[in-house]
């Protein structure tokens, strides 16, 4: 779909650290599909990198609301809350990330989904890539 294509382009630009282009494509993906959790996560990462924490918070919260089982959403939300100095909210988000991550890590390979509903490159917690 157009949303998926825009998202993938946004993610390519984000990984290449071309944040303005990435932001444009993530925003375009959200125009097509407003509840696209991965696009909200990508946009939150870009906004975090651009030190626009208040805007990043909006998208991190939308990502968590759209897909509460996505550990990356909770991780990114914790980073935004930390940047904003909201230590209580940061800890809540980090606790949920750790719970989900632990569950995912201990889940048998046979129980994992082979394909995601949106069939797009998923956001990851990667220390080598900003946010």
CATH topology: Serine Threonine Protein Phosphatase 5, Tetratricopeptide repeat
Determine the number of helices (DSSP H or I, runs of at least 4 residues): 6
Query: What is the CA-based Rg, rounded?
Result: 14 Å
Order of helices and strands: HHHHHH
Average residue pLDDT: 89
Structural class: mainly alpha
Q: Going by CATH, what is the homologous superfamily?
A: Tetratricopeptide repeat domain
Anisotropy-based shape: globular
| CATH C-level class | Mainly Alpha
Which stretches are poorly predicted, pLDDT < 50 over at least 5 residues? Answer: none
Give the name of the CATH architecture.
Alpha Horseshoe
- Sheet-strand content, in percent, reads under 5%
Q: What is the terminal separation in angstroms? A: 26 Å
Number of domains: 1
Query: What's the story with the biggest beta sheet?
Result: none
Question: How many extended strands?
Answer: 0
Helical residues, percent? 55-70%
Would you give an account of this structure?
The chain has 131 residues and is mostly helical. It has helices at residues 2-15, 19-32, 37-49, 53-66, 71-84, 87-106. It has one domain (2-107): Alpha Horseshoe (Serine Threonine Protein Phosphatase 5, Tetratricopeptide repeat). Helix 3 (37-49) runs antiparallel to helix 4 (53-66). The longest helix is centred in the last third of the chain and has 20 residues, at 87-106. The model has no long low-confidence stretch (mean pLDDT 89).
